[in-house]
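Pasting two entries for a bug report.
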Amino acid sequence: NEIKRVFHKLREIHLPANPVHVYPPELASLGLNDTFDEVLILQIMLKKLADRYDNVPDVELSGVYDPKTQQTIIKLQEIFKIDQTGKVDKQTWNHIERIYSSLTNND
């Protein structure tokens, strides 16, 4: 599918991720019921991916790391072939941010 193709293509050419949404160093991870500002930033990125790719579940922009957000993260972790924890750590955030940046840079 297309999101896998784009993700793997970006990995192959080693483009640096756009540092617009840098993972907050004070956070170990984001998970269920978290309400940090970073959750809303994450949901904005996820919404953009869901709008573009059919196999990415949509999320609500609530600022709360709810079960829908967790399900979307698990799906993306599966696509990225990383541990499917349902939590967002630096690795997961950076993969999401890289795809998000490629979409916003092409708008």
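Entry 2 (this is the one that rendered wrong in the viewer):
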Amino acid sequence: GSTPQTDVERLVGPVAHYIETPEHQSFDSYDEFAPKVLELIEAGKVDVVLPASGYASKILAVDIWRTGANVNILDLGSIFDVFKRPGTRAWIRNIETQINKRYGNN
């Protein structure tokens, strides 16, 4: 994804293989990053894939499924948007507003 690896690891823990994708229009570079993911799977180096690249994540999940590989795929999508300021998703802004009302802006 486009979220820095350090931010990803804050949420999910250590990441053995991180492949960066563009922040916007990542599908345009799908043919550049998808083969890297598929190679890691084929080599048996990963058993969990956590894509967060918008529409490209859905295509990647289908391509992985078609290989028959025994891996888990969890599209984390906008979850990583929490690390971006200002909030890029309405649900993030709404939650932030509720937290600030309840606990203050500390």
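Dev reply: Rendering is fixed now. As a check, the viewer should reflect this: The radius of gyration is 16 Å.
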